[in-house]
Amino acid sequence: MARPRLDSEARAGLSLIAPPFLYALVILAAPLMTILAYSFLTDGYLEVLPEGTLQNYGQVLTDPIVRAVMLRSLIVAAVVTFATVVTAFPIAYYVSFMVRPERKAMWLFLITIPFWTSYLIRVFLWKVILGYNGVVNSSLTGLGIIDEPLTFILYNVNAIVITLAHAYAPFAILPIFVALEKIDRSLLEAGRDLGESRLMTFWRVTLPLAMPGVIAATLIVFIPTIGDYVTPEVIGGGKIPMIANMIQVQMLALDNRPLGSALAVTAMVIVALVSALFLFLNRRFLKVRQ
Amino acid sequence: MNRQGWGLQAYAIFYLLFLYAPIILLPLFAFNSGTIIAFPLQGITTDWFAQMWADATLRRALTNSLMIAVSASILSTCFGIFAARASTRFGFPGKGGIMAFIMLPMVLPEIIVAMSLLVVLLGMGVQLSLLTVIAGHTLICMPYAIAVLSTAFSSLDRSLEEAAYDLGETKWGAFRLVTLPLVMPGIISALLISFTISLDEFIIAFFLAGNEPTLPTYIFSQLRFPRAIPVIMALGTVLVVLSIVLLALGEYFRRRGNARIGGKPTGGLL
Amino acid sequence: MTDKPMIQCHGVHKYYGDYHALRGIDLTIRSGEFFSLLGPSGCGKTTLLRTIAGFEDISDGAILIDQKRMDEVPANKRPTNMVFQSYAIFPHLTVAENVAFGLRRDPRGKAEKAAAVDEALAMVGLAGYGARSAHALSGGQRQRVALARALILKPKVLLLDEPLSALDRKMREQMQVELIKLQRQVGITFVLVTHDQEEALVMSDRIAVMFEGEIAQLDGPEALYARPATRRVADFIGVMNFLPAQVISEAGGIVTAEVAGLGRVDLPATQISRANPEDEGPMVGFRPETMTLLGPGATHSQPRETNATIDEVVYYGDMTYYDLRLDGAARLDGKARTVRISMRNVFGRDVQEVGTRTRLAWSPGSLVLFR
After folding, report:
1. Interatomic CA distance for residues A259 and A257, integer angstroms
2. Closest residue on chain A to C12 (Cα)
3. Which stretch of A131-135, A279-283, C299-303 has the lowest confidence by average pLDDT?
4. In this model, does residue C25 exceed pLDDT 80?
5. Looking at the predicted structure, is the pLDDT value of residue B266 above 60?
6. Is residue C298 domain-resident?
7. A1 vs C57: CB contact, 8 Å cut-off?
8. CA A210 to CA A187: how far, in whole Å?
């Protein structure tokens, strides 16, 4: 009896996955391929000329303004990610280790609620809190702690960092929490039993075991942050653009689609490289532990 | 609790304050009679809510957003059911690559999805409308729906469906009578999460909606006018209350579904 | 039980990609029989059961149920029902709804169906449990619901996939007896898959022992235990002692062999089985309970007697195990070895101590030669 090349299970699986896969092909793959193609074409006046060129990428890599924006995006994303993950870890640790099991769900609920409120309004409110006449400054001047309103938190990269760190906090807490929850509590007791101090047990047992969660949190925060459009627009008032704002300006306002496409492709490559780096680190980390 | 425990607890409370700072301000300014969003507060008023209620553009934006969110959540959940079942139940060639590709929007900056889609739509001469937003939102909600549904499908004992088939049901009957009721809490969660994501999504709506306002694009357009801010604060307050109610409802149904099939109540909505 | 065949497998092969899971199974299960498929995990027993149920296609061969070809018939149209290892009780339905699940297409009226459900529940000892929620049941109760749910459809064959493995020991022993009684009561052919040799011996009329996708031996429990067809079957079922042997002569179907520690014995063809390929030479095997440890001055009616020293004593309450060094056990290959003898502890017989010189009484009829 001849065996068919695809057994019935493979056929069932493929026919089930076909609708979502085709949808993603049409709505995602086709557009991505289009901008990839655009990025190698020449910008004409109001139209795209079908002439192949590498000039767009040349401009992306050499133009000082583009470079500055790229660098700013990378630095902001890196600082936001670092700040978010470092401040999120103690919270995840607290909920996982200190909160009684029956109250953990409530804590997670409390942590996720702010995340479900309008992103735009949250971003705007940070502007209110940090602004020249904002909550922080008016309180501090009212209490007589400062005479002049603080300006270092206003309309600049610092404000963007604080706002984004707030926006992505639950995304950092949850993966770390999940990783901490998976740790067998008897391992920690074993560490203590073997004569390690609390701090050393944390350093040598808890932290390494929580590392996959920390790396997941890093990626989950970094990727959307580097592509964020709203925060620079609302907080920075458009004066300190990041990569997403620049893509939009090239694509629409300046109508230079090839250059906009080249920027988008470059941004994707950066995201992919950073993700690959972290996934590689994660794998190495797991290997060392085994 | 020892000293370290107290330290952590104090930090946790401080952190919650940080998380809730913007949300605590919302109702303060929504009920504040002053037209400028700054301290000190003036007096109490409900004018902003009345103005919000009377705003025709806002109502239009709300209707649009609801239409988009309902369509996108249903579509992405349907696609999600197909994908989650395929990935948890069957092995097929190219599975890893196909699944990774479908989940890609989760890790792709939204501006890139929005821009590339916009360039293609404009190139093809497609008229921008609510439909184009729905198409984009379905794409970005799909991975979240799949993630939620995969958990629901994979916690299902495979022999349950086989048992139904063995007892004389057709394959479709087994799915309808056994699998579907058991993954229903997952389906409701997927719908809720997709709905919430779509309702709050700004970038795709901003670029793909043409002239039609949605709630986030309306809010964005109003943020530029200081006079309009108190109304936006009122709107924000209503949205916060609504989303808390919705979340609590979702959590309630999830727990009830869990209790009904004897599972342990663990974790949150995510 | 009749001699009418209920399930026939002819040259059944099953491949998963390149993996050859079933390698030419030929098997006839009789109508009304309690039949077991026994083997270690990965031997193909569950695959064979699932091909009979219709959950897996076969790659080659034929399966007949009640003398009708079943290869192309899907599981929901076969006259078989299954009790799953996890029981697969539908957690969103009540006990009664679970039991009535297969009756959905039954043309009978509501009252008749309800009566059938009550009858099925009573049969498995769950009368009055119908309104309970299924997920609130204990393991043993779930098992009973699974049985009632399958038996209510009056299948020609009931397939049981490791049905007792999730139960604790006491419950398992109780359910073994109940399953035997139930099978006798309904008269349906039962096919049980198990990796537990004791369970198979207790419950089955006949047992097929499987290794690596092939049937190694198909026999009744007593024959399987006393005359394992291969050394591998002997190892898998119960405890067997092995001593090296040397074949001296063969004449008229009788093999004469020199056995280390036991001396010269004559063994007829019925006591000769296949050795494992990796065995170094012929071996003679015997079960621990087939030899008797004699107290000082005790007499016996066995034809043979051997001297030994007690190396270790393990006391179990009802039984005592003795590890013995037989005199001359190392004569053939120079290796020291012990054999294990089990003695029932009866009133008036003392447990002997380590180091004691003692005697064993035995009969050549209890030996099996593996060559």
Report:
1. 5
2. A1
3. A131-135
4. yes
5. no
6. yes
7. no
8. 13
Residue C126 lies inside a defined structural domain of this protein: no
Q: Looking at the partner chain, which of B157, B164, B181 has a beta carbon nearest the beta carbon of C101?
A: B164
pLDDT for A153 beyond 60: no
The CATH number of whichever domain residue B204 belongs to comes to 1.10.3720.10
Q: What is the CATH number of the domain that holds C284?
A: 2.40.50.140
Residue B264: per-residue pLDDT: 43
Domain identity same for C228 and C355: no
CA-based end-to-end distance of chain B: 29
Domain count, chain C: 2
- Verdict on whether the full-model pTM lies above 0.90: no
Answer whether C153 sits within 8 Å of B167, measured CB to CB: yes
B211 in reach of chain C (CB within 8 A): no
Q: Report which DSSP code applies to C280.
A: S
- Residue A100 DSSP one-character state: -
- Averaged over B2-29, what is the pLDDT? 84
Better-scored residue on pLDDT, A183 or B100: B100
- The DSSP secondary structure of C226-245, one letter per residue, reads HS-SBHHHHHHSS--EEEEE
- If one counts the domains in chain A, the total is 1
CATH number, domain containing residue C5? 3.40.50.300
Residue C148 pLDDT > 90, yes or no? yes
Assigned domain for A172 exists: yes
Residue C204 lies in a domain: yes
Which residues of chain C have a CB within 8 Å of the CB of B164? Answer: 90, 101
**Res C283: pLDDT:** 92
Q: Which chain C positions have a beta carbon within 8 Å of B157's beta carbon?
A: 86, 88
Residue A205 maps to a domain:
yes
Q: Please give the average per-residue pLDDT across B147-159, as a whole number.
A: 88
Cβ count near A250 (within 10 Å): 23
Residues spanned by the domain of C276? 242-371
Partner residue facing B163 (CB), from C88, C104, C136:
C88
* CB spacing of B162 vs C90 below 8 angstroms: no
Contact flag B93-A139 (C-beta cutoff 8 Å):
no
Distances (CA, A) of B216 to B31, B199, B205: 21, 8, 8
Task: Please indicate, yes or no, whether residues C260 and C217 belong to a single structural domain of this protein.
Answer: no
